[in-house]
Structure formats: structure tokens, C-alpha cells
Amino acid sequence: MSCSLIFMMLLSCLLLPSARAGRSVLPEEDDMALERALKMLNKPYVKSIKDKYGVVFDCVDMYKQPALDHPLLKNHKLQISPSTSSNSTWTGPTMAGEPILVGLQESCPDGTVLIRRTLKQDLVKARASLPRFRQEKDQSETPGQHFAQLLINSEEGSKFQAAGAVLEVDAISVPAGQVSSAQILLVDDTSSRRSIIQSGWSADPLHEIDSQTRFFTSWTADDHKTTGCLNMLCPGFVLVNQNASPGIALSTGTAGISISKDGQTGNWQVFLNQQIVGYFPKEIINGMSGAAEVQMGGMTYSPPGQKSPPMGSGVAPVPGQNTLASKFTQVGVQGAKIGKYWATKDVSDPAIYNVVMTSGPQGDSFQYGGPGGV
Q1: What is an example of a Pfam family matching this protein (predicted)?
Q2: Which segments of the chain does DSSP mark as H helices, in order?
Q3: Residue 53 C-beta-side C-alpha neighbours within 13 Å
């Protein structure tokens, strides 16, 4: 049995124990499995960098990064940059002159990529928590999860090839064990296996050591049943940037985030302020040819029995009023005609969470969020 296949089986058991198994795991056996996973995820590095919050990132040879251990990427050719053809990747909203907001004072050497070092507690938290950012169309089927968002469906027979927006990045206080986020999702549910790729920012003490706002990515090829993960907690998302990576801290302000299919390779690339961070290889997401639906907006999670945390800036938008609610501006999709779009939320009280469509000099936009407390 190949090392890569053993690795995927190991991570599968670690991250989704309730979906596997049929037997209990002894504490010492469990601990050994965690140590093996850490050794496989944390590759040898040429340099390490600690951000001001104490999180360590390693500079790893881009050709030896853990993503390439995925069994479906055995013969994968690393895509260093977007294609330059006429149908090349859309890099998203215009963010001219704005630097990537990383919270780091250094970058990695040429030929290496910045990868957050995985700790044992990261795997334990991922294993113990619910799937990340799983959203339904007009209601949440995950207890404790709430959302306020914009949904965009393509016309039947066509699929979106890109989606992006400028997101306001907020610093909010989120209690331990909870999550508040803003993200862009591309969903392909036209086959029996639902592929979802996404990126955005989150304040996430459920998985993190604090509620600092951080950039994230996530993917699944079967609606979170057995595949995919958050950030770099399993092989899959390929990094190509030496100074930006999932898990980096973001300062308050704005961030242009987009996900788009490369016209030549078919890989789905993630851009932060028009700079490519990495990509979801087509091989790991069922060869995803496009997205039937795009979701943008806010999401919160709190364990059942606890009151939900703030969403966005913590201010709920009000139709026709200028509030301090968070915004998505320069909202855009490409590659298909829009069949339908609508704002939706799963909490009826607009003072708790709300979403309001707006328009202005920055193009299509919407406000979302609220103080929570449901």
C-alpha cells in the first residue's frame, strides 16, 4: 500500500471518526496516529516564521508540500502561475495598491511556500467539531449554525467559472468554541457527489487558539461526508505563494477574494487582493467543470444551548438606512448567465441577523450581519 494512500486513510479516521470506524480507539493508539499524521503534514522546512500572535509558519519546498501527497495528485504537474491565454483566470475585484494583509513581517525564500505548522491540538479540534461552513439554500440543517447571505444560481445548462467580491474584514469578539465568518462558496451539485470550494475570513476559536480574524480555505468532493478539510489539515489545496497562506491573520479593512477556474488547467485558483495564494486541483473535486450556485455572506456557529456570536461587524443592516453593518462590494460572477439571485437568512428577526441588497459606485453589493444572541 502506498504511503499516500495510508496517509489519506489515517487523516480520514482522524478527521471524521464518526463517519468511519465501527470500533473504539485506545488513547495510546489514537495518540500514535496523531503523531504519524503530524509527521506527514509538517514537511521539512528551510525557514520558520512566527507571527505576532504566536502562530508558526514554515517555508517548505513547493514541490514537497503535503498537498502533493494526495493519492489523486500522484502525477500532478504543479501550476506555478495563472495561464496567460485569453480565457485565463479572473483575478477578481480591483484592489490596486493594497498589500496582502498577512500579519507577518517576513516572507519565504524563492522556491518555497508558506505553510502554517499543524499542531496536535489542530487535528484534535478538527476531529471533534462539525463540518465547516456547510450551508443550505434557505435554512441551516446544522444545529447551532446561522447565516445571512446572497445566493446566485446559474441558468440551467450553464455553470459559473468564477466568483469574487471585496469583503470588509472585521475584528470581533467570539466566545470559545464558536465561529463567525464571511466567505464565498462555489457549489457544484449537478452530480451525485456535491463539490464545494470556498474561501474567506473567520474568527474561529472553535478551531483556533483565539478569535483573531484569519484567512481560510476549505473544500469537499462529497458534501463533507468523507473528503476535504479546512485550510491545510489534509492534502488537497496546493500553495504557490511565498508570503500568503490559509491561516494567516488579517488586519481590519478590506480584502479582495476570488475563486476562479483556470482556462487551461481546469484548476480552481484562490486570489487574495489579486495575488494568487494557491488552488484546488480539479482532480480532488470530481473534475469540477463549474459551479451551479454561488453563495456569499456571513455564517456563525455556536454549540447547541449557547447563544450565537456576532456576525460581520456585529451590526444588523436596515433597508434604506446607512448603518455600520459589514459589506460585500464589487460582487461579481463570470462564465454563466444568472438564472436567479436572492438574499436569504435563517433567522426571522432582522435585529439578530439580516442581509440587505445595496448598490452604488462600487457596483453590486450587499450588507449583512448582526449582534447574534439567538
Answers
A1: Neprosin_AP
A2: 3-15, 27-41, 120-128
A3: 18
